């Protein structure tokens, strides 16, 4: 039915008289919400997940159009909060933004401000464990959506945007993201693109990560004939172990030389760092028997593999050169996470035209005046690996430029203006990704 002209005029009149002016974005309120979240003690070994989840849940519910759900992918003491900003076309794959709730412990005596005080100094630095890793992005996601709705109340994303707040990332994610991606709730999200944490950048450009290195815990064991401390003989456990330690040290030196020469980045080589040595016969008084050569000795290594490395070749090298059975050596590798996706491909997300999400992401940052540095492999490991394993395009990104890298360090802080800039960046990213058809 065609509406008469007076009806249209009446609607126009009503909307003109009832339209509210757009309230200004309250930056100070965003900063204090960030500080309040930082004050919740979510550091290991006893992260307060329930307080954090109820805080984030009520924050999300204070924003129009957002829905929340609390899930328990592993156990009732490890909640996961899922926030949803529904899109107009649910048949399209969704966007998932992620932040882990937990953080590493802090030693208060080594901090200039108490690590859970979220003190803001005169120069704007907010000190707290988790300020960079990664409670900033947790709040920035929500503040960005709040601002989008505030400045454009009619904005509706085409694709649905979800935010996941997950437990246990800092201890491997086995009871967090690893379990969540196996759940039916996750499958129902139909995720097409995943954005996870990154790291601060000391330059004027933002950093983006397209892969993580994968950690291996390697233990090399040597056995040999025991003997009196005074005897000289071949193939003692200690002699065999020390030969291996030398071989691994040489390998490490060669890898590190590539970094020092600028040929490869730190995260592009295999690192093999000696983390413990174990041998000796205890004498009972806290010392060791000095006149005995032990029959067993072992060395522990933290090994990190970039996705460009063939893990089978490294295993071959370990078996043949680092711990050869011909020298009575054995080894044990605990792989702390997947190395290949479900199709057998290395866990890397393309940063070229073959990945349409890359262009949308890159352009969104450019659109709000930001600049990206060359995409990198992350030296360490995040929950992103569980999504890459499913073949989901995934980037690591935390918008912190001109900021010292302080994750897991004493006196971790983030500047208030950097935090606010990050909200602007996410406004652009969320709008672009959710409008991409
Ligand atoms: Zn983190």
From TrEMBL:
Record: residues binding Zn(2+) 1: 100, 133, 197
Is Metal-binding there in the keyword field?
yes
In Gene Ontology terms, what is one molecular function of this protein?
metal ion binding
Q: What Pfam families does the record point to?
A: M20_dimer, Peptidase_M20
GO CC terms for this protein? cytoplasm
Q: Which domain of life is it from?
A: Eukaryota
Q: Which GO terms describe its biological process?
A: amino acid metabolic process
Which cofactor(s) are needed, names only?
Zn(2+)
Active-site residues from the entry: 102, 169 (proton acceptor)
The UniProt record lists the keyword Plastid: no
The cofactor note from the UniProt entry for this protein is:
Binds 2 Zn(2+) ions per subunit.
Q: Matching SUPFAM superfamilies, A to Z?
A: Bacterial exopeptidase dimerisation domain (SSF55031), Zn-dependent exopeptidases (SSF53187)
Q: Specify the signal sequence span.
A: 1-19
Alphabetized, the UniProt keywords read: Metal-binding, Signal, Zinc
In Swiss-Prot or TrEMBL terms, this protein is called N-acyl-L-amino-acid amidohydrolase
Q: Where is the Peptidase M20 dimerisation domain?
A: 218-319
Q: Which organism is it from?
A: Cynara cardunculus var. scolymus
For the ligand (Zn(2+) 2), the binding residues are 133, 170, 408
Matching NCBIfam families: Ac-peptdase-euk
Q: Tell me which Gene3D superfamilies the record gives.
A: 1.10.150.900, 3.30.70.360, Zn peptidases (3.40.630.10)
């Amino acid at each position: 039915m065609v509406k008469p002209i007076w009806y249209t005029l009446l609607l126009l009149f009503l909307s003109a008289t009832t339209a509210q002016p757009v309230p200004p974005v309250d930056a100070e309120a965003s900063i204090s919400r960030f500080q309040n979240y930082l004050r919740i003690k979510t550091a290991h070994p006893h992260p307060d997940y329930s307080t954090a989840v109820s805080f984030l849940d009520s924050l999300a519910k204070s924003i129009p159009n957002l829905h929340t759900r609390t899930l328990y992918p592993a156990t009732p003491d490890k909640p996961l909060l899922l926030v949803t900003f529904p899109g107009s076309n649910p048949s399209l794959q969704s966007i998932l933004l992620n932040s882990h709730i937990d953080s590493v412990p802090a030693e208060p005596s080594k901090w200039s401000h108490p690590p859970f005080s979220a003190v803001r100094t005169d120069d704007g630095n907010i000190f707290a464990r988790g300020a960079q890793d990664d409670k900033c992005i947790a709040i920035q996601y929500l503040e960005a959506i709040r601002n989008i709705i505030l400045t454009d109340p009619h904005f509706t994303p085409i694709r649905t945007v979800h935010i996941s707040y997950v437990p246990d990332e800092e201890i491997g994610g086995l009871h967090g993201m690893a379990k969540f991606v196996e759940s039916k709730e996750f499958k129902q999200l139909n995720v097409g693109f995943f954005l996870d944490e990154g790291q601060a950048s000391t330059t004027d450009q933002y950093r983006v990560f397209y892969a993580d290195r994968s950690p291996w815990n390697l233990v090399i064991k040597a056995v040999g004939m025991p003997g009196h401390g005074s005897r000289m003989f071949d193939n003692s456990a200690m002699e065999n172990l020390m030969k291996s330690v030398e071989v691994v040290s040489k390998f490490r030196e060669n890898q590190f030389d590539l970094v020092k020469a600028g040929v490869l980045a730190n995260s592009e080589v295999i690192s093999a760092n000696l983390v413990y040595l174990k041998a000796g016969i205890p004498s009972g008084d806290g010392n060791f028997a000095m006149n005995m050569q032990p029959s067993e000795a072992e060395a522990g290594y933290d090994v990190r593999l970039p996705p460009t490395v063939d893990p089978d070749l490294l295993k071959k090298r370990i078996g043949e050169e680092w711990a050869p059975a011909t020298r009575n050596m054995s080894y044990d590798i605990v792989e702390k996470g997947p190395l290949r996706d479900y199709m057998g491909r290395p866990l890397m997300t393309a940063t070229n035209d073959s990945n349409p999400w890359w262009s949308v992401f890159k352009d969104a940052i450019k659109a709000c005046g930001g600049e990206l540095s060359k995409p990198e492999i992350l030296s360490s490991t995040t929950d992103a690996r569980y999504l890459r394993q499913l073949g989901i395009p995934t980037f690591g990104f935390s918008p912190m430029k001109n900021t010292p890298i302080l994750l897991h360090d004493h006196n971790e802080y983030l500047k208030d203006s950097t935090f606010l800039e990050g909200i602007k960046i996410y406004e652009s990213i969320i709008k672009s990704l959710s409008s991409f058809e």
